[in-house]
Amino acid sequence: MSLTSLGEPLHRLTHAYRAFMRSAVVDAGISLPITHLRVLKAIWKQERCTAQFIAQRMRRDKAQITRVLNELLGEGLIVKVENPGDRRSQLLRLTPDGESMIDRMQAVETIAMDRMTRHLKPDDVDTFITLANVMADNLQNAGGEAGATTTGEPNHAKTGTP
Amino acid sequence: MSLTSLGEPLHRLTHAYRAFMRSAVVDAGISLPITHLRVLKAIWKQERCTAQFIAQRMRRDKAQITRVLNELLGEGLIVKVENPGDRRSQLLRLTPDGESMIDRMQAVETIAMDRMTRHLKPDDVDTFITLANVMADNLQNAGGEAGATTTGEPNHAKTGTP
DNA sequence: TCCACGTAGTTGACAGTATCAACCAGCCGG
DNA sequence: CCGGCTGGTTGATACTGTCAACTACGTGGA
């Protein structure tokens, strides 16, 4: 396989994964988009979680994170609490509904991962994860070249016409 | 690493890859979105290419493929030719402009792949591709369960509220 | 030969994902 | 005290993705 055949498998896997997750999430009676679920999970995992932390961790524009957080707030899955250390910032916490949404998500993720990794050995999965992380790091640590900078938000590419 | 940590690395790699490609494509003076470029490439690779073929190959909704094709048509990068074997269908061909766009794309892809695979051995890349294809197959060959069916377009999940 | 059923492609509508720009309130170091 | 920077917000826009309904056409069976 030549190097130039890396992009298509990645696109294909990504698309299959997202389509599967969308379907599985609907089957589980969850009506949140995938990004909302990932943000919820980030809040669940990280103590003293802020929007700024999530934007950095997920490499997303802070504007988008703000919108997602506000929708989760509207759904009653999170609350925003004043950050005593920085009055510009709010700490994010899951509500009891948010906690139970996390439980349901984990069930969905387990199904997805089981399906994805069918017939694969645990070593294979670990290998894939390692390689994926290395490649993502390579792309993100472009150091001023095309793509993301090493810290904070990436310097953004302009796409399409105004 | 536990199984449940597979989703995040995949999301992260996907996002990094798309962001990098968007930036690299802009740097190359190309103003087409990534999906347009992939459709162009599918037409370039496949003789007697049709919209239906692309929709199947890329696992996309035929409506979206039609729209992308019409934009490529508007840019003068492809032409639609009547299919003598099926009057419902059109065969797609690249114009000279389309051919030169393919050349510029290949240059961008080479940069992206070189960057992505920095410090990786060719065996690693082959392993990644193999694993990605297996996982995508696993997700797509769900045979009536959540996710795609084995042939044609997947049965679609309804997301969000109407 | 006719027709029911299915397919290829199109168009309308809508939602999710993603980014850029400009802004305000607040933080912090000189 | 203030300039520069940061956290978060809002407006605007583009890209990606799907569902539904439609028309023209293909095909196999009655």
The gist of it:
Two copies of one chain form a homodimer. Helix content of chain A is 58%, strand content 6%. Chain A has 162 residues and is mostly helical.
How would the blueprint of this fold be written?
Two copies of one chain form a homodimer.
Chain A: H1 7-27, H2 34-45, H3 51-58, H4 62-74, E1 78-82, E2 90-94, H5 96-116, H6 122-140
Helix pairs in contact in A: 1-5, 2-4, 2-5, 3-4
Chain A binds a DNA duplex (30 and 30 nucleotides) through helix 1, helix 2, helix 3 and helix 4.
Report on the architecture of this protein:
- Chain A has about 160 residues and is mainly α.
- Chain A has six helices and two strands, in the order ααααββαα.
- Chain A has a two-stranded antiparallel sheet.
- In chain A, β1 (about 80) and β2 (about 90-95) form a beta hairpin.
- In chain A, α2 (about 35-45) packs across α5.
- Chain A is globular and about 50 Å long.
- The structure holds a DNA duplex (30 and 30 nucleotides).
